[in-house]
Design goal:
By secondary structure, this protein is mainly alpha-helical. It is built from eleven helices and no strands. It folds into two domains: about 60 residues; about 70 residues, Cytochrome Bc1 Complex, Chain D, domain 2 (Orthogonal Bundle). About 5% of the residues have low confidence. Heme C (HEC) binds next to helix 9 and helix 10.
């Protein structure tokens, strides 16, 4: 679980003023407190530039999260975009690569745990039910295989990837949840 926010919360409405575009943007931004998943972390790191060694590993190697964690730690010496990741982000990216690599350099990146949580976990209850829980992978998989959840369209591998993302990134303290997402959101 995360003990600290990994970046300051920026209030888009305050910065940008009021207007229709701002309203739409502010609505999207309500989920900014949910930490980035591996797809976004990888995309951003690539935009900043990865080393040839790391790109080659991503394009050709598989491995578990420990193996990828080791490769990422090694890359920190000469890749600023990887050096800039905090320990939760490094762990999140390591699990994403464990679930998805090898990944061709030009392939569309598969959805990550955050993508899945936002797409799949809000239709019956608010996302708060999910992101405030501090749980083991086994407990997450038990929830996802429960009668209320078993029909959600995911492959077993995606459930595992979502569970791994949530082990690292959920357990967000309630005072970091935007007020509009704190109460009264469950409709089941
Ligand atoms: C089809 C409706 C539906 C969707 C979609 C859904 N849930 Fe739920 N969820 C429920 C219901 C109903 C409950 C309360 C009953 C229960 O606990 O099974 C619940 C409760 C929960 C709880 C608290 C109780 C528990 O089992 O620990 C968690 C955590 C949870 N859901 C996680 C998720 C996640 C993660 C997703 C997305 C992968 C998700 N939910 C998507 C219906 C849904």
């Amino acid at each position: 679980m995360r003990l600290l926010p990994h970046r300051p919360v920026i209030l888009a409405t305050v910065v940008l003023g009021v207007g229709m575009a701002t309203v739409a943007l502010a609505q999207e931004d309500v989920f900014d407190f949910i930490p980035e998943g591996g797809r976004t972390l990888l995309q951003n790191a690539r935009a900043d530039g990865l080393s040839a060694v790391l790109e080659a590993a991503i394009a050709s190697e598989s491995g578990d999260a420990d193996a990828w964690g080791g490769r990422l730690e090694a890359a920190k010496a000469d890749v600023p975009a990887i050096e800039a990741l905090d320990s939760w982000q490094t762990d999140t990216l390591a699990h994403y690569l464990a679930a998805n690599a090898p990944l061709a350099a030009d392939a569309e990146l598969p959805r990550d745990g955050r993508d899945m949580a936002l797409a799949l976990c809000q239709s019956c209850h608010i996302i708060t039910v999910v992101v405030t829980q501090d749980r083991t992978q086994e407990a997450w998989l038990r929830t996802m295989n429960s009668p209320s959840h078993v029909e959600i369209a995911t492959t077993p591998a995606e459930r595992e990837a979502l569970a791994d993302y949530l082990v690292i990134n959920a357990g967000i303290p309630i005072d970091q949840i935007p007020p509009e997402l704190r109460a009264g959101g469950a409709s089941y």
